[in-house]
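Morning F.,

Quick status update on the modeling queue. The single chain you submitted on Monday has been processed. Sequence for confirmation:
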Amino acid sequence: MKHFVLAVLLVIIGVRSTHAYDFEVDGIYYNVVSFTDFTCEVTSGTTKYAGDVIIPSKVKYNNRELSVTSIGVSAFEHCDKLTSIVIPNSVTSIGHEAFDNCSDLKSVEIPNSVTSIGMYAFGHCISLTSIVIPNSITRIEDGTFSECYSLSSIVIPNSVTSIRYRAFNSCKSLSSLNIPNSVSYIGAEAFDDCGIKSLITDCNLSSSSWSSLSHIYLYLPIIDLTFGKNTKSVELNIARYYDLTKLVCHATTPPTGLTASNKQYMELEVKVPMGCLEAYQSAEGWKNFWNMSEMDEDESSVETVIADTPKTEIARYNLQGHKVGDDYRGLVIVKYSDGSTAKMINQ
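Structure tokens below.
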């Protein structure tokens, strides 16, 4: 189905044939995007990309310097020997299926300059272990990370408002997930067949959304489920979570739309904010739980995880934009997991 949709799309926008390119420099193939602005995009070529690839922000060809502003449709598709890719800050878009079926791809660094990532851009990248989505992205498209079997860590920033159809489908190694309160729409099967056991969500999805939480999380082995303080509506039947042992809610007003099985009402451990037990015990969807209590101070502190995902260092670069190790001496640019950067002197 996805290939049919993409085929129609490609016909409409008039994409070039697989091996058509305008010029090649240092093993990277390019198409000119604008002769006026001197911009170009990375495209596929006569040979497949392999190993560690660093895309430059600018490239010179026949006495002209062009800025690299995008990675074209299917540019790296089926490059099964590609192991890592560094994308420069000049790039603003990554095309549909740009890295689809790059089976050896383990590392991708996406800068904050990127504002759009196409459908199935990283689909079937079975060796990709982690991804940091930059805070310039507002929409995760259909199948963007579908069937990334080794993906065990993702950071979804507060800029994201929409997670589309099968966006993370079959990410079997993904054991935990934090969905920020900026998300107002999640498409069908977005996290279907994932290995998520711990889910933290602070978003509000109602029946007016195309897909409710009940549909989205249909096949997840969730053990711990946490709702953030901003949650007002969940539209969720947790009866389908057979392994669920603990439910925590940080909202001072009980969210609407929650239902459970009789066994869960009798046995599930439920934690609510301090001073809110009486409100929950009289609220629809909550009042039937037998094992409900107020969380203590330590449990309340878990809300900081929902509000701010801790950032970690993921890479260092010298002033020329080349990736360096921890032993590099001098001024370096450090990139963090939340997409932010900082300069520091490594002595």
